[in-house]
Amino acid sequence: MDTKKLQKIVVLGTGGTIAGTAARAEDLTGYTAGQLGVQLLLSGVPGLSETLQGDELVSEQVAQLDSKDMDHATWQALALRSAHWLGQSDVRAVVITHGTDTLEETAWFLQQVLHTDKPVVLTCAMRPATALAPDGPQNLRDALAVARDPRAVGVLAVCAGQIHTAQRVQKVHPYRLEAFSSGEFGPQGWIEQGQVRWAESPTRSAEQGHAHHALGVPSANWPWVAVLHSHAGVEARQIDAWVQAGLKGLVVAGTGNGTVHQGLMSALLAAQAQGVAVRLTTRCAEGALVGPVAAFQAAALGLNAYKARVSLLLELIAPGHH
Fold first, then answer.
1. Exposed/middle/buried for 292, CB within 10 Å: 0-12, 13-18, 19+?
2. Domains in the chain, please, with CATH?
3. Cα–Cα distance between 173 and 101 in angstroms, integer?
4. Is 17 a catalytic residue?
5. Cα dist. 179→10, 29, 140 in Å?
6. For residue 187, with 0-12 CB atoms within 10 Å meaning exposed, 13-18 middle and 19 or more buried, which class applies?
7. Per-residue pLDDT for 319 more than 90?
8. pTM of the model
């Protein structure tokens, strides 16, 4: 594919801290997320034309929310708009401005439902746009540099000069600028003085594009899939209540190597017998389950509980396509 012909980069805004405002410039936590439009954010990026090198920017506001409130309807709208733009021959890449709280979940959702070889780059900020030294403009400029890199592929997250894959990225700190990590794998790459340096050449994930059919199902009809953590003194009553209320899928974040409290086991097995799909992962911050696990299927790819929930959700929406 001749990338020289791809002249547009589309920036989709969803809100988040990057678009947040506070009454005082020194207030870095007491702000309101999702206040500024994406066009205004782009106007605040330094050296934009230097980064774009002639490419045209198209921006569109898909949502305007705090990402702690991210919902299935917004995911569906975002995926459909991304697919629309990625399908245009003159579009090189899509960049998405997003809040940090659920960025890893949105990234993994998009990784699975978008069937494209073009990059989709999520970026964010830890400080509001009104801060004395906001991090959003630099993150957005870095994201555009990654979007223009011919080796970029799949869904990526760019923050604090680092590039992470949708599969590995997770938020690991509540307020530092370097809030994201890929754990033991390390970043996929870095942006240094506007130049992209890859740790290794990116490859298209085998998990991409399987659940495209989910985009045709109204989000209001998506099944209820929950996350449950095993911990000391955990109560099984919540599982029974959820099953009675219509639960369809459950991801259990077990202790250690996927171990589950004995107080939960009978309720989980009963739920599974009643047709609830149960997947097991670990609540540990790094590593994946090793060896055979209990009576439940392990979450694929060493995903954390929240991404495993996304995968199970998509599996239940389109069971024949996974």
1. exposed
2. 3-198 (3.40.50.1170), 223-321 (3.40.50.40)
3. 10
4. yes
5. 25, 14, 16
6. buried
7. no
8. 0.95
